[in-house]
Amino acid sequence: MHASCNPPVTVSEPLPAACGSAGAATPTGVLLSVRVSAVTDEAQGIRSFELVDVAGSALPAFSAGAHIDVITPGGPTRSYSLCNNPSERHRYLIAVQREADSRGGSASMHERVRAGDLLAISAPKNHFPLARDASSSLLLAAGIGVTPILSMAERLHAFGSDFQMHYCTRSIQRTAFHRRITTAPYAEKVHFHFDDGEAVQRFDVATQLPAPQSGTHLYVCGPGGFIDAVLTAARALGWPESHVHREYFGAHVEPSGAEEGFEVVAARTGMVVVVPPGKTVLQALAEAGVDVPFSCEQGVCGTCETRVLDGKPEHRDLYLTPHEQAANDRFMPCCSRSLSPRLVLDL
Asked: Among 45, 141, 180, 277, which has the highest number of CB atoms less than 10 A from its own CB?
């Protein structure tokens, strides 16, 4: 799955504009140079970073649900959702949760980034947009998954669109942007649910997710277990695939079992690259000099999505819907493999 009935209110989102201070080209595209204007502790283990253009120019426009790629001080490039109002052009606001098993991204953002520092980022990209034809929206967020959902709430309120938002966290101490939300003009549309609170206020996805209504779209973001529970409940209730949108922040890529090597053909040049067991398609292509944009390396962000021309992929990503995976015309080389001896890619 991608991710109340009033007369439809069209949400017209701006397209990213080419402005801001451009930097060097990398596997994530042309980078912008930004300055960290503020660092704020938003909740236990969650810190926000306000980013502005180094030259004081307007930043590229973004739409609700968009993210940017950030080259972290630790080295990895990581995707972070923009959580400020999409109408703002003077800043980007991201929030980073310190992960216990950080591979160098979140840890370095928390430990090494201070106000005044410079960072290199990509222009905004959106794989989790609001549906233009929705008459109503149901926003479900858990933990750090509130970041794109918060931007959506800002946008929907600005357009006078009908929506409700549910925000689930372990405790109020772990609830990022609690004060911002409770003082927002749309605060009455937001419902908080704390794991350590009374049972009556907890959000039980299996029993409390409403049945689908014509024109209503569902958006969910948060830990994998939360998203999976929502998707399972939505399917059981008969929500249309096209009306359920989700975005994962991370995933553990499980091996398929008897992992075997295979060949990848870069169709545009005819180059044949062998992908051995234990190595990703992305890694094998990079070693052969074939550049593919990437970010998360876990199959959740969609940055490395590649078109498949021939062969049968073994999908291990969480980005494509089951229907999209069944088409076998695209896949994520950062984590997915091949069920056929050869995979021909549009590279």
From this structure: 141
pLDDT confidence band for 36 (50 / 70 / 90)? very high
Which pLDDT score, from 0 to 100, does residue 14 have? 36
For residue 12, the model assigns a pLDDT of 36
Residue found under tokens 């106000």: 115
Domains with residue ranges and CATH for the chain: 22-122 (2.40.30.10), 136-248 (3.40.50.80), 262-345 (3.10.20.30)
Single-letter amino acid code for the residue at 134 = A
For 14, 59, 120, 122, the CA distances from 21, given in Å and listed in that order, are 20, 8, 10, 11
Kindly list the strands in the beta sheet with 244-248, ordered across the sheet, starting from the edge strand earlier in the chain. 190-194, 162-169, 136-142, 216-222, 244-248
Under 8 Å between Cβ of 87 and 78: no
Q: Which residue has the tokens 């109408």?
A: 87
Position 255 scores a pLDDT of 54
Whole-angstrom distance, CA of residue 40 vs CA of residue 19: 27
What per-residue confidence (pLDDT) applies to 100? 76
Tokens of 276: 């051995």
